[in-house]
Amino acid sequence: MAHLTGQTVLLTGSTGTIGAAIARELAREGARVLLHYGRNRYAAEALAAEIGNGAMCFTADLSDPTTPSQLWAEAEAAAGRIHALINNAGILSPSSVDDPLDQWQATWSRDVQVNLLAPADLCHAAIPHFRTHGGGRIVNMASRAAQGGYRPGAMSYGATKAALVNLTQSIAGGFGVDNITATALAPGWVRTEMSEAYIAEHGEAAALSGIPIGRMAEPSGIAELTAFVLRPSQSSLSGAVLDVNGASQMR
């Protein structure tokens, strides 16, 4: 059944492994997907052609503070009514307390901008639009790293994802009366280019050692859950943080 027929969804980070899987699943569910990309125009246009349903492409460098609001404005001008926002784009930047202070601060500033401030600005644009049109859905892609602290070499990633969870819950509590829902997904290890690079360096056993079920999540599984959250029947998931980590614990 096409549960999202008639829905228009703005998806950031659409050309990554998880983003592309989400776009395909949303289209299978009947949605029109507005595909955001940073640099890879060819991949975005190829994905739009593949999924159809009136998919459109929009570019924005989310590390630039001026672009998230512009992205929403361009998407709204082109598509009209937008029913849902998925803040999927994100970065993980290695850093160390042994880094020079200016390098440390630059890493944190970029992670905060892309992982937290860009989603916040998009929510700032989306919420009034949703209010005007009778409601809407927000899905924020957090991480297992948001809970219980994160490894010393990527603390900015964990901190920004934790803040994104808090933002999600604040929106859910503050705007439910306007028929606006917000839900966070918190994946652990997912089979992506990033995880494959880690495996190439450290070995698969290192990646799987903390996952009791012994395997990573697949991008298609994250995509299915994202589409499920957007179904009209699932408004009560607002405020939830959905862990997708195979019962893994922070190490």
Write the layout of secondary structure elements.
Elements (H helix, E strand, L loop, with lengths): L7 E4 L5 H12 L3 E6 L3 H11 L4 E4 L7 H13 L4 E4 L13 H32 L3 E6 L13 H21 L4 E8 L5 H10 L1 H5 L10 H11 L11 E4 L7
Parallel strand pairs: 1-2, 1-4, 2-3, 4-5, 5-6, 6-7
Helix pairs in contact: 1-8, 3-4, 4-5
Write a brief caption for the model.
The chain has eight helices and seven strands; from the N terminus they run E-H-E-H-E-H-E-H-E-H-E-H-H-H-E. By secondary structure, the chain is α/β, with parallel strands linked by helices.
Structural features, described:
- With 251 residues, the protein is an alpha/beta fold.
- Helix content is 46%, strand content 14%.
- The chain has helices spanning 17-28, 41-51, 67-79, 101-132, 155-175, 193-202, 204-208, 219-229; strands spanning 8-11, 32-37, 56-59, 84-87, 136-141, 180-187, 241-244.
- The chain starts with 7 loop residues before the first strand and ends in a 7-residue tail after the last strand.
The main β sheet shows up as:
7 strands, parallel
State the end-to-end distance.
Answer: 40 Å
Task: Report strand order across the widest sheet.
Answer: 3-2-1-4-5-6-7
Q: Write down the secondary-structure element order.
A: EHEHEHEHEHEHHHE
Mean pLDDT figure: 92
User: How does the helix and strand content classify structurally?
Assistant: alpha/beta
Number of helices: 8
Give Rg in angstroms: 17 Å
List low-pLDDT spans. Answer: none
Instruction: Give the beta-strand count.
Output: 7
| Helix share, percent | 40-55%
What amount of the residues lies in strands? 5-15%
Shape: globular
